[in-house]
Every structure is written in structure tokens, then in C-alpha cells.
Amino acid sequence: MTTADSVGPGARVRIWAAEHAASTGQPVSVAVLCETAMDRLGVSGVTVTVEAPPGWPETRYATDQLGARLAELQITVGEGPCLDVWREGGPVLVPILDAPAIQRRWPLFGPLAVEAGAGALFALPMAIGTIRVGVLALHRTRPGHLAADSITDSLAFAELALRLQLDRHAGAHPTADADLRLHAPEVHQATGMIAAQLDVSLEQAFVRLRARAFADQQPLAELAADVVARRQRFDPAGEAS
Amino acid sequence: MADERLIDTFVELADTLTDDFDVIDFLHLLVDRCVELFDVEAVGLLLADEHGHLRVMASSNEHARVLELFQLQNEEGPCLDAFATGVRVSSADLHSATSRWPRFAAAATEAGFAAVDALPMRLRSQVIGALNLFHARSGALPTTALRSAQGLVDVATIGLLQERAIRHQEVITEQLQTALNSRVVLEQAKGLVAERLGVTMDIAFTTLRTHARANNQKLGDVARLVISGHTSTRDLLASTAVRPEQPSRQRQSRNPE
């Protein structure tokens, strides 16, 4: 078995999560992912909030009280890094919460977060384009930058959390692909096409794409290419389940 | 390549670095200008994600065949080499590059290209991506042109990263990830439009872009509005000369793209 050091970040975090799960006798879940990320990234705590339905965040798992509190605060005051990830379209990484610029950016959340005991907060979207699944939030009680390697790994943890949550939505289909092939543009194009073919949301379209890839034992990117080339269609009648 | 055109291009690019900045529009402008300035067939700009995969952010030519040539370079090719080494990688004659890049050279020559350059996008000690120029004729670009091209690549890097004094990896990550995500949104929108209008991906792209320009909107915003349903297919058609093919249910016998 490959060691975590010799592979890319995607495989690395999967190996770490699997090791952690095995050592505690559980399957890899969002909870296991959060605990693994906390150990590996050098942060005080990790929280996953999910948007179910989109726009309605709820805390799925928090490794500590502070994480849950920070998530709750942002929902209450309606501002903060975890909400801004959707506005920006990418991560919002705040190594120093108690700084004037930060307090100005979030005049309600800023002081409350510091008061609650947070020094740094790093919010990573669990998303694919406009498909919003949730946010992976890392916090530190002390301010400080994330090391470059940790930033890379945290992005990979967010992608794994995204996959776990999608699997959960889809009724826990195990899938043919361990990774989501998000760097393949045909995956996103196919998602758009299927959404139009079935008249469903992009998230539902992506779930269907993965489900068919698994059912047909076909690699996801290959099926996506078939959809884009119009060799395969998704028909509402055929997708009744 | 006239000096004046080059200066105009730098000014044009610099002008876009305002509050209203849209990364996708900016990068498309850059690649389109590169085609004109260097008299090449196709230009693509690729950025690496956190896994090290090179992803197309903007291409002067959105035909599937050309986009695939960029994608292929995740396995081998000048962009991969430029990304790995941080230096310019060129081939003046792709026909003799078959031992260097067997799959890529074959695919590129089949697509009608004879020469290629890949320029690294560098930020201090990091290489974040590459600009790829494809030529229809063999031969090397003159040194002045290569220097100008690298200058434009450096402007692209600055435009992408939007901060004059980037000290920390957090800022770089935020901006690169945001840019990568914007491209994903565009791909999703292309798929929706391609299906609804019964057109190919490059026509779907052109439709979105034409609508954005006609309505003075950012391409990224139009993509999101189409996905959310706030901009309808009818709205898109009103801005373009594209007419839909047969409605969806009758398209079963359509030839594959």
C-alpha cells in the first residue's frame, strides 16, 4: 500500500482518514474526516456545516464546542467567513481574526468570534461550481498562518467532505471513482446537460451522473465524455428511481 | 507584431484591473489578444489546482479538439514541462517531437498545428500554470515576440492574484481557487446551454459570451444567471443569431459531436 507521503493530497487525506477510521473501528464518515483533519492540519478544531437545502446551513459535525459556536454565530448574525465563501466562490482564509481589517469586514461576527476564543478561521467551500453542498471550517484558538502544505491538504479534505456528503444525499452509493474528477471539464459540462435533460438541479444531475457511472461500472470522466458527445442521454422516464 | 498593438494590449489589460474585475473575462481577453499579437492559431491559459492538475481557464478556441490538446498535457506535453521546470518550453516542429511527447505531438499535428510554445506563469518561486501558443506553421517565434509573450503572461499572473504585495499563501490560494471555481461554473453553464439549444459546447460558450457583451455583463455573472434560471434560453437567443435545432425529444438520431 502506498504511503501517505508518496502520493498527492487527494490520496493522502483518504489514506489518513482510512487509517483513523480503522483505528477506531468505524467507517470513514464526516465525523472521522473532521477528527482526522484536526490531527493532521495543526488546528484546534474542525467543523462541517451543510446546506440542506442550499441557503439553509446546519452543523453536521464539530470537533469541539468552539467550532459549533462559531458556526452558530455566523448564522445568527448573518455574516462571516463561512457565508462569504459563497459570495467569493472560493475559500476565505483568515489567519488573524483580531485585526482591524477583519473586524471591519465582519463588524458583528469579528468581535464575537474573538470573544468566543477564536484566533484564526479558515473556511473552505464544499462545492462544485454552483453546486453548494457545505463548508469545511478550521479554527485555531491562537492566530497564525496555515503552512502551504496544510492549505493544500485542507483543500483535499474539503473535497473529501464534499464527496462524503454527496454520497449521503444519494443514499450512500459507493462509487466506481474514489475521486470526483473535478479537473475534467466534461464532468461539469455533462452535469449541466443532464440538469437540462431531466429538468433537475445541478446537484441532482451530478448525483445521477455518478450513480450511472457506478451502475455501469464506467469511469466517471468517460461517462461524462459520452454524455457531452451525445452518445448517452438521461431520460426522465428512465430515471424514475 | 506592431509595438503599438502590444502597448494597446497592455493598457487594455491594465484597465480591467478595477473593482469590477472578472477573472474569466480578463483571461479570455488575454488569450484573444495573444492570437492577434503573435499571429498564432490558438492560445490557451492553464492553471494548476491543488492536486497539480492543469486546468484550462481560457482558450481562444473552445472547440473540443483544441481543448483536449490542453487537457492531454496533464500526462505529457510542453505545458506540463513548463509547469514542472518553470522555464519556457517550445517545439518549432511538432513532427519531429514525437519521441519527446508521443501522444501530444500526434494529437497536435492531427489537429493541424505545427509548432508550440508553453510559457510558465510564475509567482516568485511558484509556478501556478502556463500559457500555451499553437502555430499553424513550423518555425520558432522571434525573441522579441517571446519576451512580449512572457510579459503578457506576467501581467496575467498579476491580474489573477490582484494584490500588489502578496506575502502569504492564504491569499494566493483564495484567489486561485476562486478563479478555478469560476471556470467550473462556466463549464456547467455551457452544458446547460448546449443541451437546451441543441448546440456544441463552443457555440454554447459563444452564446453566453455574446449575451454578456450585448448586455454589458460579466461572463461569470451570465453563467450563474443562466444556471439559476434568472436568464432564460429565450434571453440568450435574443442576443444572438443562434437558432435552436430540433427540440430535445426529437434529437435522438443526432450525430455525436
* % residues in beta strands of chain B: 5-15%
CATH architecture group name of the largest domain in chain B: 2-Layer Sandwich
| DSSP strand count of chain A | 5
The CATH C-level name of the largest domain in chain B is Alpha Beta
Terminal CA distance of chain B reads 36 Å
Task: Give descriptors for this structure.
heterodimer, A: 241 residues, alpha+beta, Beta-Lactamase, Arc Repressor Mutant, subunit A, 2 domains, 5-stranded antiparallel β-sheet, 5 strands, 51% helix, 15% strand, globular, B: 257 residues, disordered C terminus
How would you describe what is shown here?
The complex is a heterodimer of chains A (241) and B (257). Chain A has helices spanning 9-24, 30-41, 65-77, 81-88, 100-105, 109-116, 148-169, 185-198, 202-215, 220-228; strands spanning 45-51, 57-62, 92-94, 120-128, 131-140. Chain A has 241 residues and is α+β, with helices and mostly antiparallel strands. In chain A, helix 8 (185-198) crosses helix 10. The N and C termini of chain A lie far apart (37 Å). Chain B is an alpha+beta fold and 257 residues long. Chain B folds into two domains: 3-162, Beta-Lactamase (2-Layer Sandwich), CATH 3.30.450; 180-246, Arc Repressor Mutant, subunit A, CATH 1.10.10. Chain B has ten helices and five strands; from the N terminus they run ααββααβαββααααα. In chain B, strands 2-1-5-4-3 form a five-stranded antiparallel sheet, sandwiched between helices. In chain B, helix 1 runs antiparallel to helix 2. Chain B is globular and about 50 Å long. Residues 248-257 of chain B have low confidence and may be disordered. Chains A and B meet through strand 3, strand 4, helix 7 and helix 8 of A and helix 3, helix 7 and helix 9 of B.
